[in-house]
Design a protein that fits this description.
Strand content: 35-45%
Radius of gyration: 27 Å
Helix content: 10-25%
Strand order of the largest sheet: 4-10-9-6-7
Largest sheet: 5 strands, mixed
Number of helices: 1
Distance between the termini: 77 Å
Number of strands: 10
Order of helices and strands: EEHEEEEEEEE
Amino acid sequence: MNDNKDGGITIQKKHIIIAVIIIILLLVGGITLGANWNKWFGDKQPDTTVSETEDGSKPSIELDENAGEYTGEKPKDQGGDEVGIKIPGYPTITIAKDTEDVQMALMNPEGNPCYFKFELVLKDSGETIFESKYVKPGDCIYDVHLNKPLAEGEYPATIKISTIALDQETPLNGANVETVLIAK
């Protein structure tokens, strides 16, 4: 920009080109930020990938030592011929109050094409109070050790179920199951 004789400012062609380049860079940066916002700053999903060992072989997933064969009544199949992942529902779960070691039945239904990993999260605080290792189809976790005891009351919670295919390599769709923990 130059001062002209009338006391005004003269805009030169190179100043317009620089301003246009700056505007284009800001637009490209904004579009990139907007397109990747959730990937960079959104909710992080649990890592269900299985990494290779140093020798290049795939390790086995770690199965939960508290999981065993489901001994309760098998849920009745209400579906038709659809093939997919069966997710059990948990409208309420009643547990013992004021103790970290509680009983519940977190089940991976028989016939599922994947392993389940359970995470129990309190909705009010977002705090994870239990996380399992993987559970094979047909097995169930009965003995659960909570990160903290719950006083008597009702606690809205989410059971986050992460899945990995039986090949122990391919993450599959998981689910979030809404429930209410009733501590008595």
